[in-house]
Amino acid sequence: MSTQPIAVFDSGIGGLTVVRHLRSLLPSESLVYFGDTARVPYGSKSQRTVAAFSLDVARFLMQFEPKLMVVACNTASALAMDDLARELPIPVVGVLGPSAAAAARLARDGVIAILATEATIASGAYPAAVQAARRDARVEAIACPLFVPLAEEGRTSDDPAVRLIAEGYLSPLRGTTIDAAVLGCTHYPLLRDAIAAALGPQVAIVDSGREAALSVQQALAALGMLSAHSARGSMRCFVSDNPQRFRRLGARFLNEDVDSVEFVEPERYATPAASALPPA
Ligand code: DGL
Questions:
Q1: Do the domain assignments include residue 1?
Q2: Cα distance between residue 163 and residue 191, in whole Å
Q3: pLDDT band at residue 79, thresholds of 50, 70 and 90?
């Protein structure tokens, strides 16, 4: 049993769609969240930059002595998991591994669509994880970068612009019988209905936040580290820029009000090495 918090980080606000599932599955756990809103997006950046930023943020969160670190950002899960697992002295759960495993399990004939940011798709990490879970799987990977600003702008699945863009991204899959599709980016669950409509009714949708939350529950149970409290756990958020915007938009991503958001100055989280990386 443990009173230590679970640490969660993302490139910005999107990771709150993962926290939403953590809060409903593990309500008595306390959470400490960092959104790197000064350096978002990660989804168009290189591996070395995403790994350096992720390590900065994870090191900042270690001061709260968390029992486990959740990499809520799909891009960081795709590009920085090895670096994080090597450096951190606590278990690290990313969103990618559990989602790839769920898709491999759910896809009847093994044909899986991965929808994610440019960097996640370019990394090849999702197809590798799917194929490690299921050798006969076939993966169609599609970058859908416009879904991120659309979700942040508050556009929803019934917006004609969202429907049109979802059609544009997903119509190349028309000739293929997709069995399962992974919402492999923090923002995509907010546009789930439009994405599902463009894919067709036979496709099982995998929400990476839900799969990660289930994995966290299993990991903590196996370690005997689940919270024994009966009261609802606390939640404390830190951001590297614009806490007002995080609070305002956050309620939609989290499905509840974001009460506590604190601004963190760069010198408290960004190592000079990470901010002054030479071009790759
Ligand atoms: N959080 C990122 C992800 O899940 C999306 C936003 C970004 O590009 O940083 O991949």
A1: no
A2: 9
A3: very high
Ligand 1 centroid – CA 230 distance (Å):
33
197 with 257, same domain: the answer is no
Catalytic residue of the set 32, 173, 185, 274: 185
Number of domains in the chain: 2
Pocket flag, ligand 1, residue 37 (CB < 6 Å): no
What's the gap in Å between 170 CA and the centre of ligand 1?
19
Question: Quick check: is 185 catalytic?
Answer: yes
Q: What is the CATH number of the domain that holds 152?
A: 3.40.50.1860
Structural domain range at position 167: 96-208
Residue range 165-223, pLDDT digits in tens: 999 999 999 889 999 999 999 999 999 999 999 999 999 999 999 999 999 999 999 99
Q: From residue 53, how far is each of 69, 84, 178, 256, 277 by CA, in Å?
A: 15, 11, 34, 28, 10
Name the residue with the closest Cα to ligand 1, atom 2.
73
Structure tokens at 239: 């951001």
